[in-house]
Amino acid sequence: MFRMSVISVFPEMFTALTNWGVVGRAFADKRCELTVHNPRQFALDRHATIDDRPYGGGPGMVMQAPVLDAALEQAKHLVGEAAPVVALSPQGEVLSDALARELAGGPGLVLVAGRYEGMDERFIERSVDREVSIGDFVVSGGELPAMVLMDAVVRLLPGVLGHADSAAEDSFAEGLLDFPHYTRPEMYDGHAVPAVLLSGDHRRIARWRRLQALLRTRERRPDLFVRHSHSDEDLEILRQWDSGNRDW
Description:
Its EC number is 2.1.1.228. The protein has 248 residues and is of the alpha/beta class.
């Protein structure tokens, strides 16, 4: 079982992840486990204070290192000392498919969902293994980013997805965007399913799907396209398309 712990002042938010959909079934089937630790439980005053004004002045409040460390100690006791500690932060590395796969292959995971202006840097330097961002924007706290990261990780665990190839064929799994998908009806509002998908020729279908993934990535995410290691077959498929060969 893959064990995760989250440190958050809003534990109830995580039921949105654990109670619904594919990821919810993974928790119900005991493929993974989540514990949530509220740092207010470790506050030292009757007001359950976990934050204070920043040294040097400025707006907002900063989460205190002692209560975060106490919550982390409890979390690691349940998940295991080997589990990496990831703080959700706009300053972190951007979440990617590769990172999700790396974390899914690990011994477990501890996530720290910050609030307010952030966390005392001494806690980050002392106790956090890496910081992760979900993009170049700011949200109200680390809970939603933590759930995004958890969803990306859990769906990669063995047996979570219904088809063994589902995760392997997702966008970004090979560094490319996904190809387009179609289902019934065959004709909708004057638009037909591409004929190649109805041909029954699995080799042609595979080549068409690969072409679409390459074209989509080149058009929509040229940054991914130039970083991708294209095979000789990929280059030949694109050469044929660019030269006007549309016989797919």
